[in-house]
Structure formats: structure tokens, C-alpha cells
Amino acid sequence: MALSPTLPGRAAVAGRVVLAAGGGYGIAALSTALLSLTLPMPRAEAVTTATLASFAIMIAIVVVAFAARSLARAALVIGGLAVVLGLALWLVAGAGPIGAAP
Amino acid sequence: MKKGFRQSMAWLHTWSGLVVGWVLFAVFVTGTASYYRAEISRWMQPELRREATVTPDALAQAADLAVAHLQANAAGARMWFVTLPTAERPLVELFWRTRPGTPPGHVLLDPRTGGPAELRATKGGDFFYRFHFELHLPPLWGRWIVGICAMIMLVALVSGVITHRRIFSDFFTLRRDKAAQRGWLDAHNVSGVLALPFHLMITYTGVVTLALMYMPWGVTAAYHGDQQAYFAETGQITQGRPPAGQPGTLAPVGPMVREAMARIPEPLERLTIINPRDANATVVAVFEEPHGLSHEHPQVAFAGTSGTVVEVLSGGLRPAAKTFTTMVGLHEAHFAGPALRVLFFLCGLMGCAMVGSGLVLWCVARLPKAGAPAGLGWRLVHGLNVGAIAGLPAGIAAYLLANRLLPLDLAGRAEREVWVFFGTWIVVAVAGSLPAPRRAWRGATALVAALFVAVVVADLATAQATWDDPAWFLGFDAALLALAAGFAVISHKVDRFAAPRRARAAAGGQAGEPQMGPA
Amino acid sequence: MTLLVSAGLSFLGLSALCLSLSRHHQAVWSAPPDRRRALALRAAGWVLVALSLAAAIGLDGGTFGPVHWLGSLIAAGLCLIVALSYRPRAVVWMAPAAAVLAAVAALGSMA
């Protein structure tokens, strides 16, 4: 399935690749940090669980980035998720400096 | 990309698979070889004499010998690593790290004499093992490249599963008598779907082995980025003991070795000595994993200057940590006995077949029409395919051949073997991209078969006198001959498959649409 | 030894599953299966595959059992697929052979 070899077509594909890589890693990183601080288990266990899950989260975001009907919609979903996660992380970590013992 | 979920996943599968396919093929081949890393190392040092048993006394003595050598030759180092002799490999291997950025020091000692072991210099099977996650690049670069490729492979696996909706009905089918594209598609499906649990496991757990390098943000958030503190808190390593900043004298390690072995039933594998000249020096005795899936080494830590036990780690991991160590254990498969190891090896070969057939499929599906010239992209992919799929095995065979043919006292011998590996790979890749595709495949695969036969001939001619266990070496050579036969069969098939293909393709039109083919 | 038990049972199960599909049934017995036969084969296949998992867990425990089972399932599948594409009719004698192998290996591992 060769995508339309026109310039806009290629730009859309490039956009999705950038969104999948950057958005996927960004959301995986944010969720790892957030879950590490919030999961109700000992600190080491929370970090391990969050880190192990992060790669599955990244794959899911990549699939979303390529499956969404349009680049704009994909960017909206992933960007929205990133904002929500970022806000939550800021609230959780904002109480003290990041790294303070929970 | 407005063509629905499945088509977009098919597109993603094709292109994500293509861009990382060559690296993945190399990682799969060398990783699969790593299941027999110890055997490859043994074959590459036929002078090595195994011993019936290694007594605790011999271990304690070897440890003292190792420390004496390090005191004399690596006094300024921050860390000493001592791998102790086993019956299979009665050698003391020393590594030491002086400061970040400088390469570690390394020497192999004979535990009986304390002098350097009299073996031919080679990287052995460890070369394939390190290559499969570092690609012989600077470690940071290699590990990131392999990690990114592994993540893209996961994407290709997931999108492949979504695309291939008729998994069940095509599961058992390997059509040999239809069009070439159909045959390659079936080969790709069968090797991919049949061993899918293995592919998913090996790729995910592969990323997990280096998880904290790729995804350090949990440790950043919860531990200020202190990975040692995190690992110690999970119970995987002993607590760090910061240096006191004052000089101290290391107590004899022999008694520590005996003390540690009295506490842990597993065989002792190695010693780690941290800040050896500091008043707060630490000696950690690391044991082999107990029987189980989990990669979990029991450890006993000693205060280096007094020789008293400060910590004993043995089991008792919490669930998430246990999950992590089990994933790493599954990846390494240290637990696998001979029969299960063969199955892991087979699965690894199916991984190679999946990646290789996927790469070939891309080309076959885009064969230029008769008379039309091939485009630049097609020729590039084809050249890289020949270079990866035939060039790498040729390099491996040449590496083994160099091990038998290079003079034993050659300076930098171990590095020369690696040069031969890369030199052969590059030559085959370049030469393979010049002739017409079919001739290139036939010639390159025939060359690989010939090289593996040459390895066996060279082994029989030069090393037979040094074998300590002829049956074992003959078995290894038989495995190499089986590889040679496999490549000879491929070469023969490539040669024969040409003519009847078009005719049969026309006759077999009822086969239906390819499920995963890039149309 | 225990690997052979689950490999034999997996081979039987996968053979039944694949013969429940018209294309493969036809290659072996030159006619597609009727509905009842296809359903019976499919049910028998899943039961046998489940049995091979149960045997692996029973013989090797909950930790190694599933790993051994997956390994032997993949190997059995590979044998079956190679047989189907080169000599489909060989399945007719390979399946009973697999059953005998599994039984002998089971007796051997219990003794």
C-alpha cells in the first residue's frame, strides 16, 4: 500500500512518524514517572511496575498514531493525553521536589 | 492513510519491518548464536583443558591469586571483577575499571600457575553475545540503536498480528507450488505466527534487560536518578558502601570465599571488589542463579578490610522485582537444559527466518516487470538483503575460520578475528549487490556453505591434536556442516525455482488475496 | 523426556485442528470434512492442546511447565507444517506415532 507519493501525503506520513516516536516515548516517560510516584506499593515495586509497563504503553501510542483517521486527530488525542499526564505529574511531584520519598 | 484500521496497520507493518529489518536480522542471528555462547568459546580455544571438579580450596586459592595479580597490576582501579574457575572453564578472568570512559583492563589467568593462561587470544562466543546488543559500536550508541530497533520490531509484531486476521486458517499453510510471492508470504507467516509467543517474549524482554537505560524516568522521579539505590532497594544487588576516602588494606579474600560458600548452596561464580584500596572497600561474592526462570544471583557482601559479612541476598524478591528478573531470565535462558536449549535455538532461527523472509518478501512483491529496469530503492533494498542475509553468516564462518588459521602468536589476534568477520561481511555485501539478483543469491549462499565446510576442514587439519574431547568437537563440527548443508540447499533452490514459477503462478490463481502482502 | 509428552500431545492436537480446515482435510483424504466431522476435529484439537499444557504443568510444575509447553508446541507445529507442505498424507501415520511417543514418554517420566 504505497501512500500517495505527493508532497502532502509524504508530509502526513512524516508527521505520524514524528508523532508516534516523540509522542509515544513522551507519554511512556510521563506515565512511568507518574506511576512510579503514585502506585500504591513500595517505592521500588512502583518504579519496577511502571518501567515494565512503559514499553507496552509506548507501543499502544504508536498504534494510535498510525491508526487515527487523520494526523490532526492523532495529534489531538496524544497531545491531550500528554497534557493530562503532565498536569497530574506536576500535581503529584509539585508538593515536594521530584524524588522526595513518598 | 484514510483506508481503515487494518490497511493502516498493514502499511505500518511493511515499513516498520523494512527500516529495521537488517539490524534486526543481525541481532537475531547473533542472539540465537549466543544460546551456545559457552560452546562457541570452548570450540574457539581448543587448548583449554577441563577439569573434573573445582574444590572450595581451589576456589579460595584462585581468588587469592587473582587479588594478588590485581594488587600488582591494577592498583589504581575503582572496581575489580574476578570470574572464578569452573570445571568447564578452569580459568580466572579478571576485569578492572579505572575511570569512566577508559576501556576496562582484562586478563585471563591460569589458576594453577597464576600466570597468563596459555590459550589462543580470541573473543570467542562473547563477541556474538556483545554484538547482539551493542553491534560492536560504542556501548551507548549500540544499545540505543538496538533498543530503538527492538521497539520498532514490537510495533511490527503488533501491527502484523492486527493485519493478519486469518491467523488460524493460514496457520498451517506453506504453499510451495504457487507464485514466489505466495511462498515467501507463507514462509513469513509460518515463521512469524508459529513462534509468535517467542518473538513477543524475546523482543519485550530484550528491551526490559536494558529498561532503565531506555526508560530511566521512574528512577528519576522516585530516586533522584540513583539507579544503584533503586537496584539495592529492589533486592537485586547489595547496598552500596560509599568510599571513606582513607586508604585501607584489603583482608585476604580466601577466607571470605569460604565463608560465602558456607552460606549459599549454589556454585560461586565471581567476586566484585569495589574501591579495593579504600578503608571502606567492599567484596561481593556473586553465586550462580538457583534453578528457576528468574535471573537472580544470590550474593554475600563483605567489608573488605575486616572480612566480616555485611549483607546476604538470597531470594525474597517482591512481585514486581520478581517479574523483572523473570523477564531477564527468560531472555537469557540460562535455565534451559540441552533439550529446551535446542527449542530456544529453533525459535531463534524462526525469528531469523521471519525477519529474513519479510525482507525478501518486500523485494519479491515489488519485482520490476520484465524488461523494466529496477528502481534505485529496489536495488538498494535487494543489495542490503543479500548483504545482511548471506553476508552476516559468511562473516561468522570467516570469523571461525580465522580462529583456526591466524598464527597463534599474532599480535592483536583477537581483534584480527573481528576484522576478518567484518571484512568478509562487507566484501560479500558489496560483491552481492553487483550481479543480477538470482545469481547474487545463488553465489552468496553457496559461498556461505563453502566457508562453513572450510571451517570444519581447517579445524580437522589444525586443531585435532589439541582436542580434549574429540566427540564434543566432532559434534560441534557436525553442527557447522548442518549449517553448510542448509545454505547449500537454499542455493540449490534459488537456482531451480526460476523456471516453473511463472507457469505455476498462472495455474494457481484461486489462492485468494495475500493477507499481509504489501500490494 | 517430559518435553516429548507435551510435544506428542501438541502434535496430535495441532493435527486435529488443521484437519478441521477443508484445505488440509482435502489434501489428506481428498474430500472436505462435513460439518459435524470438522467440529469434532476442532474440539478434539483444542482438548488435546489443553491436555498437553496440563501434562507439561503436571510433570514439570507451574514455573517450567508453560515454558516447556510453548517450546514443544512450537516444535510440534513446525514438524506438522513441514510434513503438510511436503507429504500431507504422512500426517495419517505421524499422528498415531506421536500418540505412541507421548504415551511411552509419559510412562518413562512417571517410572
Automatic annotation (TrEMBL), chain A:
<keyword id="KW-0812">Transmembrane</keyword>
<feature type="transmembrane region" description="Helical">
    <location>
        <begin position="12"/>
        <end position="34"/>
    </location>
</feature>
<keyword id="KW-0472">Membrane</keyword>
<feature type="transmembrane region" description="Helical">
    <location>
        <begin position="46"/>
        <end position="67"/>
    </location>
</feature>
<feature type="transmembrane region" description="Helical">
    <location>
        <begin position="74"/>
        <end position="93"/>
    </location>
</feature>
<protein>
    <submittedName>
        <fullName>Iron transporter</fullName>
    </submittedName>
</protein>
<keyword id="KW-1133">Transmembrane helix</keyword>
TrEMBL record, chain B:
<feature type="transmembrane region" description="Helical">
    <location>
        <begin position="418"/>
        <end position="436"/>
    </location>
</feature>
<feature type="transmembrane region" description="Helical">
    <location>
        <begin position="471"/>
        <end position="492"/>
    </location>
</feature>
<feature type="transmembrane region" description="Helical">
    <location>
        <begin position="443"/>
        <end position="465"/>
    </location>
</feature>
<feature type="transmembrane region" description="Helical">
    <location>
        <begin position="189"/>
        <end position="215"/>
    </location>
</feature>
<keyword id="KW-0472">Membrane</keyword>
<dbReference type="InterPro" id="IPR005625">
    <property type="entry name" value="PepSY-ass_TM"/>
</dbReference>
<feature type="transmembrane region" description="Helical">
    <location>
        <begin position="342"/>
        <end position="364"/>
    </location>
</feature>
<feature type="transmembrane region" description="Helical">
    <location>
        <begin position="144"/>
        <end position="168"/>
    </location>
</feature>
<feature type="transmembrane region" description="Helical">
    <location>
        <begin position="12"/>
        <end position="36"/>
    </location>
</feature>
<keyword id="KW-1133">Transmembrane helix</keyword>
<keyword id="KW-0812">Transmembrane</keyword>
<feature type="transmembrane region" description="Helical">
    <location>
        <begin position="376"/>
        <end position="402"/>
    </location>
</feature>
<protein>
    <submittedName>
        <fullName>Peptidase</fullName>
    </submittedName>
</protein>
<dbReference type="Pfam" id="PF03929">
    <property type="entry name" value="PepSY_TM"/>
</dbReference>
Automatic annotation (TrEMBL), chain C:
<keyword id="KW-1133">Transmembrane helix</keyword>
<keyword id="KW-0812">Transmembrane</keyword>
<dbReference type="InterPro" id="IPR021762">
    <property type="entry name" value="DUF3325"/>
</dbReference>
<feature type="transmembrane region" description="Helical">
    <location>
        <begin position="90"/>
        <end position="110"/>
    </location>
</feature>
<keyword id="KW-0472">Membrane</keyword>
<feature type="transmembrane region" description="Helical">
    <location>
        <begin position="66"/>
        <end position="84"/>
    </location>
</feature>
<protein>
    <recommendedName>
        <fullName>Iron transporter</fullName>
    </recommendedName>
</protein>
<dbReference type="Pfam" id="PF11804">
    <property type="entry name" value="DUF3325"/>
</dbReference>
<feature type="transmembrane region" description="Helical">
    <location>
        <begin position="40"/>
        <end position="59"/>
    </location>
</feature>
